[in-house]
């Protein structure tokens, strides 16, 4: 069947292995996620039962090598993220938090003992991880974090609060970033530690089929071995954030594509004034504009993926993708919702659900404003963050 979202033969730029993986994940989304996502979203539940299936498909830490991880390419990871987010942003976010944030923190910055203990469990989905960086008063400015870790003999004592932490209430471990007398450091925190409390955030208008939590840390005692030895300063968490931002570049295009295809199908079936909506010039203009941005955004994601696999991707280039693709995706989803008329505000159709989710995706891992300033700094050489 002709893919009406690929106008310029992007598929010809993919290898047979990449296409095969994409189709495997797409089939999983079509059979396991799409028939159920409206109910999960309405009920505001994350379907824990799909975690073993995701692990079996090799979606957890899929771009990491060794320690039981799948060892796939960055492009393959991106394609998987795109297909998952065509199902729902919240389910792609699970894979991102687990693999790009929590597992990457251990993989990039952990000791050999930490890697050996945790990464195989996390790749198998038997241990879920969280990533605690954002605080109630420190989102875009993590350098202002108030969570503090102080020495007590050979131990560390953590006190503070984190907010909007994905998966924390179902996690077995959390990567907690805290200020110390020696700057920002990361810690592997078992969530059954005395003093660790994770409380799910309720009444969300976005990411309803996902889990985000408040965390409180009260005199939480950790041994020296809990510290990530190779993460010093904000560079540690930022390197993990860039992994997550990369996945978002692809994922946002998945949400946009699903919304576009939903609007296209609806316009071909819905009759108004005696002919299908698709037969009207205004409708065709909207569909064309959506398709153009999806093709451009997917090409951008693929180019950044090739650079990442070559080891030459720069942080500012990730900002290009995150800023552009989130901005365009949310506009596409909103336009698709409008094309559905009143039916578009129900969960019978995906665009408004995608648009609501993208409000979160657009905010986390760097807002539009933050990525604009990163790019402005690169272009002009003048930092304008303050």
From TrEMBL:
<keyword id="KW-0809">Transit peptide</keyword>
<dbReference type="InterPro" id="IPR009075">
    <property type="entry name" value="AcylCo_DH/oxidase_C"/>
</dbReference>
<dbReference type="InterPro" id="IPR036250">
    <property type="entry name" value="AcylCo_DH-like_C"/>
</dbReference>
<feature type="domain" description="Acyl-CoA oxidase/dehydrogenase middle">
    <location>
        <begin position="130"/>
        <end position="219"/>
    </location>
</feature>
<dbReference type="InterPro" id="IPR006091">
    <property type="entry name" value="Acyl-CoA_Oxase/DH_mid-dom"/>
</dbReference>
<comment type="similarity">
    <text>Belongs to the acyl-CoA dehydrogenase family.</text>
</comment>
<keyword id="KW-0560">Oxidoreductase</keyword>
<dbReference type="InterPro" id="IPR052033">
    <property type="entry name" value="Glutaryl-CoA_DH_mitochondrial"/>
</dbReference>
<comment type="pathway">
    <text>Amino-acid metabolism; lysine degradation.</text>
</comment>
<protein>
    <recommendedName>
        <fullName>glutaryl-CoA dehydrogenase (ETF)</fullName>
        <ecNumber>1.3.8.6</ecNumber>
    </recommendedName>
</protein>
<keyword id="KW-0285">Flavoprotein</keyword>
<keyword id="KW-0274">FAD</keyword>
<dbReference type="Pfam" id="PF02771">
    <property type="entry name" value="Acyl-CoA_dh_N"/>
</dbReference>
<feature type="domain" description="Acyl-CoA dehydrogenase/oxidase N-terminal">
    <location>
        <begin position="15"/>
        <end position="125"/>
    </location>
</feature>
<dbReference type="Pfam" id="PF00441">
    <property type="entry name" value="Acyl-CoA_dh_1"/>
</dbReference>
<dbReference type="InterPro" id="IPR006089">
    <property type="entry name" value="Acyl-CoA_DH_CS"/>
</dbReference>
<dbReference type="InterPro" id="IPR009100">
    <property type="entry name" value="AcylCoA_DH/oxidase_NM_dom_sf"/>
</dbReference>
<dbReference type="InterPro" id="IPR037069">
    <property type="entry name" value="AcylCoA_DH/ox_N_sf"/>
</dbReference>
<dbReference type="Pfam" id="PF02770">
    <property type="entry name" value="Acyl-CoA_dh_M"/>
</dbReference>
<feature type="domain" description="Acyl-CoA dehydrogenase/oxidase C-terminal">
    <location>
        <begin position="232"/>
        <end position="379"/>
    </location>
</feature>
<comment type="pathway">
    <text>Amino-acid metabolism; tryptophan metabolism.</text>
</comment>
<dbReference type="InterPro" id="IPR013786">
    <property type="entry name" value="AcylCoA_DH/ox_N"/>
</dbReference>
<dbReference type="InterPro" id="IPR046373">
    <property type="entry name" value="Acyl-CoA_Oxase/DH_mid-dom_sf"/>
</dbReference>
């Amino acid at each position: 069947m002709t893919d009406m979202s690929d106008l310029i033969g992007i598929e010809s730029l993919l290898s047979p292995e990449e296409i095969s993986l994409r189709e495997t994940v797409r089939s999983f989304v079509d059979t396991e996620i799409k028939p159920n996502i409206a109910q999960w979203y309405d009920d505001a539940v994350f379907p824990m039962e799909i975690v073993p299936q995701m692990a079996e498909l090799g979606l957890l830490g899929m771009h990491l090598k060794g320690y039981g991880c799948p060892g796939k390419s960055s492009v393959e990871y991106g394609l998987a993220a795109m297909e998952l987010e065509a199902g729902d942003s919240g389910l792609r976010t699970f894979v991102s938090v687990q693999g790009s944030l929590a597992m990457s923190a251990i993989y990039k910055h952990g000791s050999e003992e930490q890697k050996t203990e945790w990464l195989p469990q996390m790749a198998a989905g038997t241990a879920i991880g969280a990533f605690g960086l954002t605080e109630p008063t420190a989102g875009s400015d993590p350098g202002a974090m108030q969570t503090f870790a102080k020495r007590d003999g050979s131990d560390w004592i953590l006190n503070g609060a984190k907010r909007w932490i994905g998966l924390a209430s179902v996690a077995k471990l959390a990567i907690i970033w805290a200020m110390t007398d020696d700057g920002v450091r990361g810690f592997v925190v078992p969530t059954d530690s005395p003093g660790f409390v994770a409380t799910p955030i309720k009444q969300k208008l976005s990411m309803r089929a996902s889990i985000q939590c408040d965390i409180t840390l009260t005199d939480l005692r950790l041994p020296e071995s809990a510290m990530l030895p190779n993460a010093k300063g904000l560079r540690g968490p930022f390197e993990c954030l860039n992994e997550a931002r990369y996945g978002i570049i692809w994922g946002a295009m998945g949400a946009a594509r699903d919304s576009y295809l939903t609007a296209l199908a609806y316009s071909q079936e819905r009759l108004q004034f005696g002919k299908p909506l698709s037969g009207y010039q205004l409708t065709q203009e909207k569909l064309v504009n959506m398709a153009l941005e999806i093709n451009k955004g997917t090409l951008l994601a693929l180019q950044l993926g090739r650079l990442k696999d070559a080891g030459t991707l720069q942080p500012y280039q990730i900002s290009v993708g995150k800023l552009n693709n989130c901005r365009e995706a949310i506009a596409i989803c909103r336009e698709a919702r409008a094309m559905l008329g009143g039916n578009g505000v129900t969960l019978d159709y995906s665009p408004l659900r995608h648009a609501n989710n993208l409000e979160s995706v657009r905010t986390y891992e760097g807002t539009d404003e933050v990525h604009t300033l990163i790019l402005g700094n690169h272009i002009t050489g003048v930092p304008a963050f303050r």
